[in-house]
Design goal:
This protein is about 25% helix and about 30% strand. It has three helices and eight strands, in the order H-E-E-E-E-E-E-E-H-E-H. It binds nickel (II) ion. Nickel (II) ion binds near residues 89, 130 and 134.
Length: about 180
């Protein structure tokens, strides 16, 4: 079941989510709904507070791999990188911010079993940090130096589409994957 995604201004997005005490059937149903909602959006990640459930749980979809993290904790951070980021709860915008380059996370899976993600990097590392932030009521816009740097997605998409059209007109091949990154 696809659930509605809350947008910035809703107080559930700003609260500290509670730990999941037991991964039971109702939690597994929530996980399935969140995966379906994330894919339909589409997004690279979705945290339970984004669908109005204040629990420490998130799902990620990076490189066609679904990851479920219940009660996740970042146990190691390495380096720092500047990245562009968006969020399904802040529709129509993206911004530039700093994140750790690599992270290790401990969590439980969809069966309540403990597991670790060691030295995640790239988009996976970024999405893990973004989703775990949601569980503490933080949005990526809080991590930006200034909201003056917040950009609207549509004009960027249009600019990229125009540039791609110009390259096509010039006889160049254009990679259709050159789209704006999906939000989380
Ligand atoms: Ni988000």
């Amino acid at each position: 079941m696809i659930r509605p995604i809350l947008v910035v201004g809703n107080p559930v997005l700003r609260g500290k989510a509670r730990r999941v005490s037991q991964v039971d059937r109702s939690i597994q149903k929530l996980i399935d709904d969140m995966i379906e909602t994330m894919k339909q959006a589409p997004g690279v990640g979705l945290a339970a507070p984004q669908v109005g459930v204040p629990l420490r749980l998130a799902v990620l979809d990076v490189d066609d791999q679904i990851t479920v993290i219940v009660n996740p904790e970042i146990i190691k951070k390495i380096g720092e990188v500047e990245l562009d980021e968006g969020c399904l709860s802040v529709p129509g915008f993206w911004g530039r911010l700093n994140r750790a380059e690599r992270v290790s996370v401990k969590a439980q899976d969809r069966n309540g079993k403990d597991f670790r993600i060691r030295d995640a990097e790239g988009l996976f590392a970024q999405a893990l940090q973004h989703e775990i932030d949601h569980l503490d009521g933080h949005l990526y816009i809080d991590r930006m130096e200034t909201l003056d740097k917040l950009q609207r997605s549509e004009p960027v998409r249009k600019r990229e589409a125009d540039a791609a059209a110009a390259r096509r007109a010039a006889g160049e091949t254009v990679d259709e994957e050159e789209e704006a990154e999906e939000p989380a």
